[in-house]
Structure formats: structure tokens, C-alpha cells
């Protein structure tokens, strides 16, 4: 009873705060107002340390979504983590996670951004290693070390901004656009955003972080942690030079393509959804690098709604099939779990961009803006091919989880009796259906005017149908058909392993330093330095002490020998 009351209190509190901040963001949008709240924390001699908060429609709206999704995740966790003996600790970690994200959102100051940024990294490590096994520990270390690169980049940004007189970057963006120092600061900020949002070559930690409990994955992959890098780049987007944006565009489109391709050859349910998140992050980064920060923020919010729902549905499925995550053990769950299957289909259709769901309003608008922009043919092809891959792996997931033959053990019990999990999913399903149109009306006062030829206007639909056809082939013949084509075997292995990125950036990075350390211990600490150092000193002292003992035990002999040696020495000297 104590657990239930604590979770319900957290749910009600966060949902109330979410409604309040959403109302305030609507007021800020209508009145076009921005508030800076600043107070002095410490004043010492002539130095002042002040805390600044940026309250505008963007920060309030993002805070509202973070608190709304986290409240439903906490409600969902009540039943999902029922067997856990330390549920309160888990909820406190989630609340610390949300608090770090809120600190990052409302901070225009690089110091307070670093506090929120590091808070996200630290708490994410604690949550990834929550189950305390070897796989979780390896994934946690890998996640933490990958994110430390971004932390170091932010520390270097703070060092470069010392000469500006303040770390509140929001005051200097227009001024710094013409300064050479801004090139270095912009590159470091983009590096930090790439590590936190898992762009190539820092993509391998995102699927590895799936070792965390599923409610944490729902929160991390929707509105916190991975979106922190995108949000930081949206805030800094005015100051990026064009050559740096072109670099980011290439990286993000390749990330989108690589993750979409890898998801079609993956069998772990949570990893498929994680690669889907990676693909959507690449889409946000790419449209941001083309100069449309408002569209990137729009897709950030709509993606948060349906991706959290998708992870919740996956958690319900995993919970019922006795913690199997391999989709080949599932199948035909639409009969056994109809409500979960309905939520699963709504979230997946929103991911695919089904008309009038949340994902349609942002994704279709982004693809039409891309068609209208001045892009080369290669980037245009990768954009739409990656969109087709999204439809492909979504329908492959449909087949394996909802439609195919049931492949679990003969003795099973599938049920939807956990009402808190159901309420959490239904709450998000409402937002996944209505959230896109609501945000579209709220954010864009003036609609985008897009005039395209008929074939380019129909390209999203054509590519979606092609992706559906490819997905149907995949689940009709299965991957064994493709593995039988030996000439494509290497290509399939290359694509399914995320371009060997986990291998390169785990073993490839750590093998040489660890081997060097082992050899240095063997050859230096336990080798030559030991032989000539401590061990050699021990042998010398032992020899000297035994010689001294011999002198002390043979007094007459010793004196006679010394006398004769001295006498001979004197005779030779004469």
C-alpha cells in the first residue's frame, strides 16, 4: 500500500505540474514573452556567482512533455517493477533523472547546463546498471564513457567562453556569429550533441543502454537523455556556421540510414525500438542542420509521445512472455492481448507517419521541406530510403509480435490485468493520436507554404508503400531466404551489426590501452622494475645481513683475515 501511494503521489504531482507548465507555455506563445529569472547565489569581493533561468514557450512546453511522460512512466512502473524490493529507490532515480533534464531545459548558462548534463549521465549510469549483472555493468560503463566525451566538450566550451564575460550563451549568439572563436565553440557544442544523441560514430551506446528496465527506456528514448543533445543544438542553432551544418547533415543522414538498416536485421524487441529512436534522432539532427530548428523541435515533441508508448507496449509484452525479448518467441499477441496490441499498432503507425496521427504532422512536413530544399540527389535518396526502411522494420515487427504464429512454450498465461500499466499506455495513446495536430496549431501560427510537383508530393506515400512491400517480403520468406544468398552474406552481416560500430568502438578502442596496461604490469611493475627494484633490494640486504652475521659469528677468523688483507694491501702500495 505504501508503494502504491508513493507512486500515485509522484504521478499526480508531476501531471499537475505538467498541466501548469503547458498552460504557461500557451500564454507565452500567445503573448510572445520570454522571462529571465536571475538571482545571486554567492557574492565574494567583486565576484558574483548568479543562477539564471530561461522561461519561454519552448522550455515550458518541453518541460511539460517531460513531466507528463515521466508521470505516466512512474504510474506504469508500479506494476512493472512489482517484484522489485527497492521500488522507492528506482522512483527516486527516475525523479532525479527528470530533475536533471528540467535543469538542462531551463538553463541559458553553460555552468548550469553542465550540471544538468552531468546529472543525466550519472543517473543514466545508475539506471542502466540497475539489474546488477555483467551485461548491465558493461553497458553502463560503455554508456557513461561515451557520454563523457560530450562532457569534456562542454567543459572546453566553458573554458573558451571565459573571455566573453559571462557563460550565459543566449546573450552572445548574434554577436558571436562573426567571431572566429565561435567556430571552435560551435564545433565543441555539436560534438557534445552528437555524443548525447548518439550520432555516428558514437551510436553504439544507445542499443547497449537497453540493459536498463523498460520504464527507464521509455523515458530515456522519448523525452530525456538522447533528446538533450538535440535540444542543446536547437538553442545554439543561430550561431552555427554553414560548413559545420553541412558536416552535421552528412553525419545525421548516415546515422538515420545505418540505424534503419540495422533494425531490419535485429531480433531483440527493445533493440529494434532503440534503433528506431536512433533513426528519428538522425532525422531531427538533419532537419536542424538544414536551418529548420522549429521543425526539429516539433518532431522532438511528437516523437516523444509515440516512442514512450511504443516502449511501454514492448514492456507489457516482455512482462507477459516471461521476460523473453527475442521477437521470434512471440506472435499472434493481437488475440491474447488486444488492448496492448491496439496501443502498439497506434504507436507504430504514428512512427511510420500514418495520416492524422502524431508522427504524420511532423514527419510529412519534414519530408516535404526536404523536397523543397536545395539538397543533392544522394542526400535526397538517403532521406526517403531511410523513411522506407522505417515502414519496413515496423511491419516486420507487426508480423513477428502481433500476427505470426505463437512460438512461446505450451504452458503460458498472457493477461492484461495490471490496470496501472494499462492506464499509463492509454494516457499516452490519447496524446499519440491528438498531440501532433494540437502542437501543429500551437507552434506554427503561419503555415509552411510548400509548392511541389506531383511526383515529389507523392514521394512519401510511394516510399512508404515500397517499404511496406519490402517488409512483407521480409516476414513472408524470413531472413533465412536472404542468408541463403551467399553473395549478400557479408552485406547482411555488415548491416545487421550497425556497420561493426559496437565492435570498433568497444573492443577497437579499449583493446590497445588494456593490452598495453597488462604488458606494462607484466614487464615493468612485475618484471624488470621488480627484478632490479624491490626484489633486488631484498636480495642485496639478505646477502649483506648474512655476511654481517658470518663476521659476528667468527670473530678471530675475521680479524686475522682482515689483518692479512690489510698487510698485503700495504705491501703492494709500498
Structural class: mainly alpha
| Helix and strand run | HEEHHHHHHHHHHHHHHHHHHHHHHHH
Overall pLDDT level = 82
Q: What characteristic shape results from the CA principal axes?
A: globular
* Strand percentage: under 5%
Order of strands side by side in the largest beta sheet?
A: 1-2
Q: How many helices in DSSP terms?
A: 25
The largest sheet is: 2 strands, antiparallel
Compute the gyration radius: what is it? 30 Å
Please give the share of residues in helix.
over 70%
- Alpha-carbon distance between the termini? 105 Å
- Segments where pLDDT lies below 50 for 5+ residues? none
What's the count of strands?
2
Describe this structure in words.
It is globular, with a radius of gyration of 30 Å. Helix 17 (377-403) packs across helix 20. Strand 1 (35-44) and strand 2 form a beta hairpin. The chain has 25 helices and 2 strands. It has a two-stranded antiparallel ribbon. It has helices at 2-31, 57-80, 87-105, 110-128, 134-160, 173-176, 181-196, 205-208, 214-220, 226-236, 242-263, 269-289, 293-320, 333-336, 338-352, 358-372, 377-403, 419-443, 454-457, 459-477, 479-483, 489-496, 501-532, 534-553, 555-573, and strands at 35-44, 47-55. By secondary structure, it is mainly α. The chain has a domain at 533-574.
Which key terms come to mind for this protein?
574 residues; mainly alpha; two-stranded antiparallel ribbon; 74% helix; transmembrane
Task: Describe the structure in brief.
The chain is mostly helical and 574 residues long.
List the helices and strands and how they pair.
Elements: H1 2-31, E1 35-44, E2 47-55, H2 57-80, H3 87-105, H4 110-128, H5 134-160, H6 173-176, H7 181-196, H8 205-208, H9 214-220, H10 226-236, H11 242-263, H12 269-289, H13 293-320, H14 333-336, H15 338-352, H16 358-372, H17 377-403, H18 419-443, H19 454-457, H20 459-477, H21 479-483, H22 489-496, H23 501-532, H24 534-553, H25 555-573
Antiparallel strand pairs: 1-2
Helix pairs in contact: 1-2, 2-3, 2-9, 2-13, 2-18, 3-4, 4-5, 5-7, 7-10, 9-13, 10-12, 10-13, 11-12, 11-17, 12-13, 12-17, 13-15, 13-16, 13-18, 15-17, 15-18, 16-18, 17-20, 23-24
Catalytic activity: a ubiquinone + NADH + 5 H(+)(in) = a ubiquinol + NAD(+) + 4 H(+)(out)
Organism: Creobroter gemmatus
Pfam family, one: NADH5_C
Amino acid at each position: 500500500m505504501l508503494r502504491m501511494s508513493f507512486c500515485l503521489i509522484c504521478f499526480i504531482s508531476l501531471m499537475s505540474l505538467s498541466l501548469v507548465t503547458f498552460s504557461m507555455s500557451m500564454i507565452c506563445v500567445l503573448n510572445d514573452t520570454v522571462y529571465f529569472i536571475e538571482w545571486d547565489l554567492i557574492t565574494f569581493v567583486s565576484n558574483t556567482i548568479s543562477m539564471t533561468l530561461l522561461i519561454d514557450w519552448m522550455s515550458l512546453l518541453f518541460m511539460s512533455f517531460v513531466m507528463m511522460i515521466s508521470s505516466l512512466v512512474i504510474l506504469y512502473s508500479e506494476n512493472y517493477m512489482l517484484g522489485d524490493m527497492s521500488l522507492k529507490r528506482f522512483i527516486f532515480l527516475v525523479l532525479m533523472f527528470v530533475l536533471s533534464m528540467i535543469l538542462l531545459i531551463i538553463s541559458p548558462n553553460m555552468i548550469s547546463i553542465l550540471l544538468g548534463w552531468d546529472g543525466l549521465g550519472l543517473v543514466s549510469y545508475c539506471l542502466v546498471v540497475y539489474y546488477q549483472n555483467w551485461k548491465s555493468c558493461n553497458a553502463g560503463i560503455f554508456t557513461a564513457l561515451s557520454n563523457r566525451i560530450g562532457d569534456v566538450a562542454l567543459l572546453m566550451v566553458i573554458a573558451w567562453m571565459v573571455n566573453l564575460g559571462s557563460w550565459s550563451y543566449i546573450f552572445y549568439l548574434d554577436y558571436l556569429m562573426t567571431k572566429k572563436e565561435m567556430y571552435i565553440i560551435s564545433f565543441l557544442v555539436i560534438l557534445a550533441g552528437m555524443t548525447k544523441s548518439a550520432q555516428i560514430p558514437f551510436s553504439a551506446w544507445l542499443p547497449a543502454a537497453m540493459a536498463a528496465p523498460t520504464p527507464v527506456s521509455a523515458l530515456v528514448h522519448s523525452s530525456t537523455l538522447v533528446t538533450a543533445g538535440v535540444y542543446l543544438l536547437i538553442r545554439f542553432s543561430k550561431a552555427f556556421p554553414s560548413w559545420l551544418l553541412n558536416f552535421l547533415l552528412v553525419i545525421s543522414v548516415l546515422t538515420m540510414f545505418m540505424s534503419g538498416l540495422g533494425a531490419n536485421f535485429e531480433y531483440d524487441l527493445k533493440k529494434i525500438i532503440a534503433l528506431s529512436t536512433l533513426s528519428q534522432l538522425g532525422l531531427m539532427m538533419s532537419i536542424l542542420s538544414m536551418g529548420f530548428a522549429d521543425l526539429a523541435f516539433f518532431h522532438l515533441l511528437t516523437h516523444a509521445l509515440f516512442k514512450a508508448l511504443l516502449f511501454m507496449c514492448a514492456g507489457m509484452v516482455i512482462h507477459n512472455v516471461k521476460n523473453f525479448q527475442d521477437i521470434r518467441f512471440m506472435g499472434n499477441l493481437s488475440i491474447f492481448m488486444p488492448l496492448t496490441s491496439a496501443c502498439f499498432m497506434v504507436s507504430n503507425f504514428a512512427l511510420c507517419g500514418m495520416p492524422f496521427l502524431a508522427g504524420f504532422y511532423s514527419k510529412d512536413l519534414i519530408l516535404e521541406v526536404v523536397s523543397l530544399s536545395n539538397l543533392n540527389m544522394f542526400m535526397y535518396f538517403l532521406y526517403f530510403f531511410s523513411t522506407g526502411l522505417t515502414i519496413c522494420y515496423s511491419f516486420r515487427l507487426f508480423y513477428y509480435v502481433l500476427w505470426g504464429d505463437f512460438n512461446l512454450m505450451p504452458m503460458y498465461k498472457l493477461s492484461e490485468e495490471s490496470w496501472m500499466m494499462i492506464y499509463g499506455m492509454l494516457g499516452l495513446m490519447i496524446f499519440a493520436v491528438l498531440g501532433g495536430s494540437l502542437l501543429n496549431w500551437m507552434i506554427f501560427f503561419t503555415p509552411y507554404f510548400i509548392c511541389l510537383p506531383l511526383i515529389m508530393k507523392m514521394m512519401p506515400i510511394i516510399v512508404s508503400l515500397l517499404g511496406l512491400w519490402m517488409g512483407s517480403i521480409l516476414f513472408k520468406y524470413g531472413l533465412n531466404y536472404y542468408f541463403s544468398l551467399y553473395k549478400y552474406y557479408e552485406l547482411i552481416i555488415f548491416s545487421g551489426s550497425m556497420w561493426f560500430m559496437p565492435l570498433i568502438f568497444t573492443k577497437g578502442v579499449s583493446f590497445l590501452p588494456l593490452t598495453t596496461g597488462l604488458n606494462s604490469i607484466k614487464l615493468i611493475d612485475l618484471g624488470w622494475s621488480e627484478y632490479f627494484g624491490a626484489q633486488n633490494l631484498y636480495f642485496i640486504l639478505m646477502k649483506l645481513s648474512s655476511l654481517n652475521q658470518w663476521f659476528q659469528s667468527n670473530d678471530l677468523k675475521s680479524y686475522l683475515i682482515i689483518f692479512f688483507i690489510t698487510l698485503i694491501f700495504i705491501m703492494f702500495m709500498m
